[in-house]
Amino acid sequence: MKNLTPLAKQYIDQFDQAVTRMPGSDNRSVTALRKEGLTRFSGLDFPHKRIEEWRYTNLAALTKPSANDSQAAKQTFAPLHGEFASDCEMVFIDGQFSAEASSLSTLPEGVTLSNLASSLGTGAVFNLEQDENRALMALNTAYMQDGFSLHVDDGATPETVLVLTFRNSAKSDTGYHSRNLISLGKNASLTILERHEGDGAYFANPVTRISLAEGATLEHYKLQNESVDAFHLALIDSEIAKGANYTNFCLSTGGRISRNELKSTIIGEDAESHLNGAYLMRGSQHTDTTTLTEHTVPKNTSSQIYKGVLDDRSHGVFQGKIHISEDAQQVTGDQLSKALLLSDYAAVDCKPELEIFADDVKCSHGATSGELDEDALFYLQSRGISEERARKMLIEAFLGDVLETVKNQQVKEYFSTLSTHWLTTEQAKP
Fold this sequence. Notes:
The chain is α/β, with parallel strands linked by helices. The chain has one domain. Helix content is 22%, strand content 37%. A 10-stranded mixed sheet has the order 2-1-5-7-10-12-14-16-18-20, covered by helices on one side. The two termini are 40 Å apart.
């Protein structure tokens, strides 16, 4: 076995004992799937900077105890709080479904929602197999504890925003490895809000797989508001059939190190994939957004818009790729990343990519970063507006464009409120 990081060795060494406490431990097929994931992970280890997709994100603070001790974040930023009213909410506390904290009595007609642990307990391993060699997904397969399984029947179009909340703490020594499954039937539609929050130092490694049938529409909103001492490394894979529409928006404000990795595979004509988001970082926080949109057939559309605000010594990363195969003619793909640096010490790395093998396409990409416009700041101050208020106005205007991509009005107001709170609340510096 190759030399592994200390944390990888820890996961491998404790697996035989830990697996006996996991859902489905008495089922041969579930245990075999877990062992397959562990074997794949042991051959890969945690991602490192020599891997191209991870060149800007260093996980040493997570994987090496000495680094973890010497570089402890010790940040005390106040978490963002905001009310979001919904009749339907599924809550997971420290990786486990909490029926007491959830409200699922008014689940809309045509929507089936259950927790994964109950399915694993019966030996079900449907849609959990994964052939790709992605280390964090393999680790998730080995250690998955719970998560949600969500299905919407053909033609069902509930208007309720379904909320899925994950609240974590430092209680687990194996981290939180939720596995989530979403499938929408033909011409179905749904809006979901996924929230991640917590307190203390912990490792969250959620994996979500999404399948949209012909004509389906999913609006998938996510708030990453983990503890600033936590590590949040998330994977979202979506498969989009003919005429289907997938929209993802992630607002990231938490985490010591956070990463949202999204892969959208368009497999049908007239399908759409829209990946958007905003990140607000301060202190020594690090956030990474890595996307891949694959156009495999002709006549479909994709777009990516991400904006970031970085203060103090925080660091942002955007790596976005649009891949258009040889047979995917008459495709439109657009990509844009912008970052606003509020400090001389804040930094951003951007790597937009177009990988085009077809000749009848319409594509664009771009990335910019910079400071607040001094002329605009001076103009506002000359009109009697204080410098502090003027700065906040300019930042709100900068974020306004990307927040406008949020279609659901209730979610848009919620995210706008959280963004304003981040801007207006004085945070304790590390």
